[in-house]
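User: My collaborator sent over this chain with a note saying "see what the structure looks like." That's all I know about it. Can you take a look?
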Amino acid sequence: MPDNAPLRTLIVDDEPLAIERMQILCAEQEGITLVGTAADGAAALRMIESLGPDLVLLDIAMPELDGMAVAKTLGRQSGSSSPAIIFVTAFDSFAIEAFDLAAVDYLLKPVSADRLRRAVDRVAERRRIPSAEATAPEPVDEFWVPHRSELVRIAANDIERIDAERDYMRLHLGQRSYLLHQTIGALEARLDPTRFIRLHRSVIVRKDRIARLGHDKAGAWHAELVDGDQVRIGRTYLAHVKAMAGR
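Assistant: Without extra context I'll predict from the sequence alone. Here is the result:
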């Protein structure tokens, strides 16, 4: 896209009034051309594939495939043609996860024209700055983890489960565990997605450690691991987990 070309933008929100308001705001902005709207995550992915927008203004709370699941799907397909994502939501509790997913910005509803302008300028600036190769990084084979006065080599494929503990990640290997100072989003990006899956904002497990998936009467899903532990599946990760199971 030329530096001065408008950002071809897709709005994704399940509330018609929210879409209408965002359309009005976008019409007032220079540097934006609307290419369409979508009312759910599945439709958004289809439109992104067919229209190839530069920017997606993405709601989080949507039925079935929500905004986080859409962003994760796009992340697994990352490349030079992937759109920039600005989350637009009424919830402030997903900001850390959103930036872990490389969102350009995180806007809280109701969005002001000035706040949208700054977010769009940020997208345009990133487009102007030459980037490194946009291919997904190769998964790492090992981690060197401090333990007492040593550094311990841990093979990535030996890790069975990862639990977030504030600023540290606890890597579980059978009866042993080690602490690594890293965010869970950064650690997830270094793991092989064919072998590991995130179940919750604070839990990653190796896929072959999952014995079964289930839900309670209220519809809350969990994963039962081979050691008998149950891990609650976060709402934003449920679609991805079901996709792993072919559902």
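A starting point for your reply to your collaborator: The first helix runs from residue 16 to 27.
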